[in-house]
């Protein structure tokens, strides 16, 4: 569902989830994590390049942060609720979470 109001685009997307496998290519260690259903609420300015987009993740979600993101590279499994923002340049910043967080990079080390 997408709605436009006051210069913002709001999108809600959900699904049943997937079974995801992550592998450390150096050590060959692998872990499998379920994402048993999730919903992503997105609030973006119109057009998106003009400001910050906010993602509110609920359920089980994996979010991949890149080296250029605030806090550096990491891959996190959130179970519960997490809020992450992207600025106009695409830089992601973790805002808040409730529930469980699992750093998959640490689990693969």
The N- and C-terminal alpha carbons lie at a distance of: 39 Å
Biggest sheet statistics: 6 strands, antiparallel
Helix content: under 10%
Total beta strand runs = 8
Shape: globular
Question: Which stretches are poorly predicted, pLDDT < 50 over at least 5 residues?
Answer: none
Tally of contiguous helical segments: 1
Judged by helices, strands and strand pairing, the structural class is: mainly beta
Strand order of the largest sheet: 1-2-5-6-7-8
Order of helices and strands: EEEEEEEEH
Q: Could you tell me the strand content as a percent range?
A: over 45%
Average pLDDT across residues? 89
Radius of gyration: 15 Å
Question: Would you mind describing this structure in some detail?
Answer:
The chain starts with a strand and ends with a helix. The protein is built from 1 helix and 8 strands; from the N terminus they run ββββββββα. Strand 6 (53-65) and strand 7 form a beta hairpin. It is globular and about 50 Å long. The protein has 109 residues and is mainly beta. The longest helix has 5 residues, at 104-108. The model has no long low-confidence stretch (mean pLDDT 89). 5% of the residues lie in helices and 62% in strands.
